[in-house]
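pinned: reference chain
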Amino acid sequence: MTQRHPGVPMSKSVISILESGFKPSVSFGQLVEASRNVAYKFPLASNRIETVCKGSQTLMNEVEEHARSTRPIAHERVVRLAGAFLDYKRDHGSQVEKGIYKGMKIAEFFDRLIRKRPLVFMMSTDLFLLSTGESGGDGAELFDRIGTDMQQFPFVLKCLMSYEEIEIAALMGISTPTHFINDGSRENRGIPTSNHEAKGIYIALVGCRFERKSRMEYKHMVVTPEQNTISNGYGRDMSKEGLLYHWAKLYGVEYFPTFAEVEKCEHKLVPLANEPGFFNLSVFRARCRITAETFLVEASERASQEGKPAYCVIVGLGLGVWLKHTCQRQAFVDAFVEVLSVIKLNISVVDFSYIRVSYFDEGSIQSGPNNGLTVKFSQNSPAALLSPPNKYTLVCSYAWDGNAYPGNEYWTESLSASGDPAAACCSTISELQNPDINPYVDGANLHVVKTDA
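pinned: its structure tokens
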């Protein structure tokens, strides 16, 4: 389904998109060999495909199909933003950026967003572990310099994403069929059990990160006296040549306001509790809407391919340690419900897992294109047994990071630190969503999510 969104012009970088017949060969043996040959250590054996299959040809065939069915995903509006980013950087970027982006196709750019990552990236200090072994507890300055004349190897644009690229990478995901070895609870730690769904779809998605000032979504959704000034590109008269303009258009606003404009009540924003400033809830809602459309449309397509309706388990994204304002939880849920009210989807149940909201009535939707769809709130684990058996295609989300491999803390053996390593522990995504192992985790295989909403 194709949509042309007002205010998001088609970039000259986005002309013909990803219809190239991408189909690399892959076998179970090739996947195992690639997994054995990576330069970094896997913390577990129990969830690796070689262990999961236990010599079963049926399971090996299924893993091959899972690998071939894995795909990066992004909303078409994000693809257009990426095109605008490339156009801007080729004209106005640093010499380092111009050298990297010269002649780069949109699929190659998304491939950068997939591959040019640390294994681990977390905390407000930008703690990191690179796939080449380098690590550190405070990488903030190193990551800030990437793409500038002050970059230092291996923290260079050729090897890693810049912070401006990470902003876009946080809007994409990876969708993978997987076997489960347990129910995926936070404390599962990769210990095999028997009482859980055997298979499902795991979708990696990223929430809003506010850990560092003037980085990532902080630039778009937080309004402070220091950041939101005319000299920094904010305000009613913001330049239509700058990147902030393209981000504003992505979120359906004309501009991001200055602090002075908000103080004059030109914008009704939510005051922050712990620092001087405001939270731009309308922009956050727009971000959630993109995420909701991406997940729900992908879930519907996956279920349709299996000839069943989807049972969706949705976890909070950025609603834990990254939370900036308590209003975010309700806005996150509302965004998904809004999508369900306007887009016809092959989904029977939407289960919001471990998300606390102030108001919402559970039960069946009684009108609109998804009449009869059940919305519920639970504390179910992602791969908990469904009832009745074999009725649904299970589709689960998990909270990924915009600048780490799937699993993130998993690679430091912190197996229950967050939902990211918990997802890696219970499934095969540490290999099947890994660009070093699965050739289908590639920008040329990007699946562009389109809606009519």
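why pinned: Confidence is low (pLDDT under 50) at residues 1-17. Residues 28-73+168-208+285-449 form one domain.
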